[in-house]
Amino acid sequence: MTAAGTARLRSADALRAARRHGRRRDAVLVTALAVAAVVLFVAGLVFGAKTLALPDVLRALSGQTVPGVSFAVVELRLPRAVGALLAGAAFGLGGMLFQTLLRNVLASPDVIGISTGSSAAAVTAIAFFGASGLVVSGAAITGGLLTAVLIWALASRRGLSGLRFVLVGIAVAAALQAVIGYVLTRADIKAAEQATVWMAGSLSRSLWDQLAPTAPALLALLAIALLGARTLPVLRLGDDSATALGARPARNRILLILCAVLLVAVATSLTGPISFVAFLAGPIALRLVKRDSALAPASAMIGAIIVLAADLVGQHLFPITLPVGVITGAIGAPFLLWLLMRGRTRA
Amino acid sequence: MTHTLEARNLTVGYDADPVIDGLDLALPASGITMIVGGNGCGKSTLLRTLARLLKPRTGSVLLDGSAIAQLPTKEVARIVGLLPQAPVAPDGIRVADLVDRGRTPHRGWLGGRDRRDDEVVADALHVTGMAEFAERTIDELSGGQRQRAWVAMALAQEPDILLLDEPTTYLDLAHQVELLQLLVRLSRERGTQVVVVMHELNLATRYADHLIAMRDGRVVAEGAPGDVVTVELLRDVFDLEAVVVPDPIAGTPMIVPVDVHRA
Question: Which residues pair with B212 in a beta bridge?
Fold first, then answer.
């Protein structure tokens, strides 16, 4: 074999080693994120109005009846933690898909008005029709989907541009914000208060009867989106290169965006709009992972961690209980400002 | 293996004002083909249609005699590679990872890589002189290096036909020549059919084996540069008054514009 040939083989080995190293590092990262999510999940079961002993919590989870523990854990804290985990993962993954497919960090569903669409519909249902429970959830999902369709129709003319999505989305969000303002001023004081609580984004509605339809839906959507995200590495090269490499970018993108819209709308129907989770998870994941293939699982985990952690902080760190959306907003807004000041908005 | 890429009665664009109008073309099975023409003559549109990025309104592109739109897109991707005019690199991607994506059409759905994938990527990096930059990120590279990284990605695809859309734009003259010499090597040493849309006329006549001149969405002339490039053609295709003299190095036609202010 020639010297050049040997050198090339050696560099093939080097490439393989570097790739394996990157993949192993990402596997460790995703595992660490999963462990962090589990720890926060268990902490959510242990801490509450009364701090419980971990062995009691585990016994209650295994189905044994532990007096003074079982009800709080199984009927109150467990559904709340499950809701936080699933909604957080849904916001995180959905947001990252929006940001990467539209190539703009600002094109996250909570910035371009999809969450606002859910809120407007839910608030209208609560204030004008006295709706509650699953009816409000249905309204929120419908509102989110309709808003997504409207933004897509307005922004995708003459090709796909992330910036146009952001601008159209902000305009649509402003209009929907006006709708919310109108509804709140016209509604009677009690309904208005209920609607305001809904909009703050809170896990207090995450109980088994709400989770019965939403949890399986979110699980299925998360699975589909994680599988579909396998095409992300090629889609991120732009439509021309993706097509040349044998992908179908238009079809793949529509499928993934549809998944993302449903993830965000269904999660919002459960918790209300928890601000900035969809916006934060993607950029954090992008800075942590080595390879694009780990982007989707990492952003789902990070979304779940943010919501679980923010809920713990909101419930226990302050003298009064704060809704989870207040905490995430307080973290997210400075992060947005920081991103804008550093001029890094390309995803 | 050689493949044939043809256009049959191709019309692309809107009804009233098609960009390409009833074009028939059979690309030569070997060597470097360059497509030239003035701005808006439809040369990029033609290349994009040949690469199945644009759907023709009528007519079809045939790969080995079958309509390219009917062939599985992944199968086409194993034969036809493309370097688009403005490729998009994800922020912070490493050169080795970018080139590795060229292997996509050769992978199964699970995306598992074998030894040969790495060898092909290493070879593509080596041939384009990018091996030493494999661990750099794309945004750390100069314009010329970046363009070579994209060529390396297209090479990792192992295409028998490589299409390039104005690959020398944004490069200085030294890097333009370097890139074209790389294409010549690919064509000579590996038998890759190279099809390039070119803006730079003198470089096109110097490096093309086969020249295709377009105007208003039609092929006006094609053949060896020495046969095709004439004073009349330059007037017809480019509205350019010029004289044609032999290139002092290669003997290929060299175009010298006539400028009344300096004549």
Answer: B35, B222
Q: How big is the CA angle at A28 (ends A26 and A29), to the nearest 5 degrees?
A: 60
3-state secondary structure of B69: coil
Nearest to A291 among B82, B97, B131 (CB): B97
Say whether B104 and A245 touch across the interface (CB within 8 A).
yes
Q: Name every chain B residue with its beta carbon within 8 A of the beta carbon of A345.
A: none
User: Which one of B97, B106, B162 makes the best mutation probe of the A interface by having the most chain A beta carbons within 10 Å?
Assistant: B97
Indicate if the alpha-carbon torsion angle B120, B122, B128, B130 is positive or negative.
positive
Assessment of whether the complete model's pTM goes beyond 0.95: no
- B-chain CB neighbours of A342 within 8 Å are none
Q: Which residue has the tokens 């942590």?
A: A288
pLDDT above 50 (res B58) = yes
* pLDDT given at position A297: 97
**A345 → chain B, closest CA residue:** B91
Q: What is the spatial distance between Cα A125 and Cα A132, in angstroms, rounded to a whole number?
A: 8
Residue in B closest to A293 by C-alpha:
B111
Instruction: Please name which of B134, B164, B158 lies closest in space to residue B51, comparing C-alpha atoms.
Output: B164
Q: Give A43→chain B minimum CA distance, Å.
A: 36
Judge whether B10 and B59 are in contact, CB under 8 Å: yes
Instruction: State how far residue B29 is from chain A, nearest Cα, in angstroms.
Output: 20
Residues of A with CB under 8 A from a CB of B: 4, 7-9, 11-16, 18-19, 103, 230, 233-234, 236-241, 243-248, 286, 291-293, 346-347
Q: Which of B82, B91, B111 sits opposite A244 (nearest CB)?
A: B82
Extract the tokens encoding B208. 């093309």
**What pLDDT is stored for residue A1 in this prediction?**
47
Phi, psi of A3 (to 5 degrees): -65, -40
With DSSP H G I counted as helix, E B as strand and the rest as coil, what are the percentages for chain B, rounded to 5?
Answer: 35, 25, 35
Q: A241 and B84 in contact by Cβ < 8 A? A: yes
Output DSSP code: residue B94.
B
Q: Which CATH class is domain A25-341?
A: mainly alpha
pLDDT tens sequence across A222-239: 999 999 999 999 999 999
Are B244 and B225 spatial neighbours (Cβ–Cβ below 8 Å)?
Answer: no
Residue pLDDT, tens place only, A71-81: 999 999 999 99
Residue spans of the domains in chain A: they are 25-341
Q: What is the DSSP string of A46-110?
A: H-SSS---HHHHHHHHTT---TTTHIIIIIIIHHHHHHHHHHHHHHHHHHHHHHHHTT-TT--TT
Q: Which of B52, B103, B118 has the highest number of chain A CBs within 10 A, making it the mutation to test binding with A?
A: B118
Residue A206 pLDDT: 84
Whether A16 sits inside 8 A of B81 (CB atoms) is: no
- Dig out the tokens for A235 from the structure: 């889609």
Q: Give pLDDT < 70 ranges for chain A.
A: 1-7, 9, 158-159, 343-347
* B contact test, residue of A245, A293, A339 with most B CBs within 10 A: A245
Strand (E) or helix (H) holding B97: helix B95-100
Q: Which of B94, B46, B52, B93 is nearest to B74 (CA)?
A: B52
pLDDT, tens digit, 9 for 90 and up, residues B199-210: 889 999 999 999
